[in-house]
Amino acid sequence: MGIHYDYKSTKGNKLMEKQAKREKKLAEKKAKRLAKEGPKQEETKIKPLDPKKPISLDFLTNPNKE
């Protein structure tokens, strides 16, 4: 009866340990991946609109014409 009694009484602790181990492993993988990639840089920079220029219909329909 000792094995079964021990299993049920420690089941919760073992599950919590497994979960903690899994989360630790995932955090290490994520940190390693982020270190490998390097810092993220913004690829697309949106140009602000010039407040002195009027907005034309051509600009609204085709903003990438420049």
Q: Strand content of the residues, in percent? A: under 5%
Briefly note the structural class of the backbone: mainly alpha
The sequence of SSEs as H and E is HH
Mean pLDDT, as a whole number?
81
**What is the tally of beta strands?**
0
What are the key terms here?
mainly alpha, 62% helix, 66 residues
Provide an overview of this structure.
This protein has 66 residues and is an all-alpha fold. It has a domain at 1-40. Helix content is 62%, strand content 0%. The chain has 2 helices and no strands. The termini are far apart. The relative contact order is 0.05. The mean pLDDT is 81.
Question: What's this model, at a glance?
Answer:
With 66 residues, the chain is mainly alpha-helical. The protein is built from two helices and no strands. The model has no long low-confidence stretch (mean pLDDT 81).
Q: What is the secondary structure topology, with strand pairs?
A:
Elements: H1 2-37, H2 57-61
